[in-house]
Specification:
Layout: E1 7-13, H1 20-25, E2 34-39, H2 46-52, H3 54-57, E3 61-65, H4 71-85, E4 90-93, H5 105-113, E5 119-123, H6 130-133, H7 136-153, E6 166-169, H8 170-175, H9 187-197, E7 202-206, H10 221-247, H11 252-280, H12 285-313, H13 322-338
Parallel strand pairs: 1-2, 1-4, 2-3, 5-7
Antiparallel strand pairs: 4-6, 5-6
Length: about 350
Amino acid sequence: MYRGKTVAVVVPAHNEETQIDRIVIKTMPEFVDKIVIINDLSSDKTSEVVLASEGYKAGKVELIEHEVNQGVGGAIASGYKWARDNDYDIAVVMAGDGQMDPDDLPAIMDPVVDGEADYTKGNRLVTGEAYKKIPKIRFFGNSALSLLTKIASGYWRVADSQTGYTAINAYALKVIDWDKMYKRYGQPNDLLVKLNVENMRVIDVPIEPVYHVGEQSGINIKKAVFSIGSLIVRLFFWRLKEKYIIRNFHPLIFFYAFGFLTAFINIFFFIRLLVVWIGTGSVPEITLLSMLFLTSISFNSFTFAMWFDYEENKDLNPPLKGRDIARAKDVHSDVEKAS
């Protein structure tokens, strides 16, 4: 129990036999009440290692077996549903490969415990060592997806959208429909959008990136960027429809609609300009002026729409208070001394 709250740590695991016990179970802080490990149809000895661990024998570990591989998002959803059905106050997600430092747990949970957030997530990109520690292609891919996720989710202060180190309270666990959660690597993006539609408060918490602890990544970075990117686009339009048309109409819809309309029309002027330029060697002035005018109108429309969206959601994405970080370190130090 952490500061009077029961804590379940959800651990999605797929082929983590070398990491799951020595890096995850054995390093888990004492205040964690239950470690819920979801074996997502591993082909190695992940389950055997978990069942043989001291944590499992002591009753601190719950093992859930998937008969069909559901992806990391599906595994997390199973863990969330278990925590919800067993009335835990907080559910934390930590990877099964040891890439999440248990020392960061208090900082991750404090805003949720204090009632300042319904959901918190780690942010590895704000530390000064992030660029050096995170593999370069992952760093730039993550940064690009984080920018798109800001626009799609409405949480404009959120960065490092792909991190899985998160904490969620019991209320949010009950509100979100986990059976409809995206089941692959786009799960964090999908969840952020769904949280925004439900008006949940989300806070970023700085954490240290952890790499080279024996983890083996099964992610195809290039494929993931394109597949998650297309998912983010779909989520963006779904959120606009769900939040600003169906549930509570907002005029920013007109600005987004006009921005997309003028951008679409501008494509035809651009094609005409290219055709005339290639055919005659000269640029049609009226077409060029029309393009510049439409570009300006489109840019302004998108800017106003995003500004309205930012204002509408800024209370759902409050900044992390400095005292929260300091208190988390003090609490963790006290817990370590007591144990």
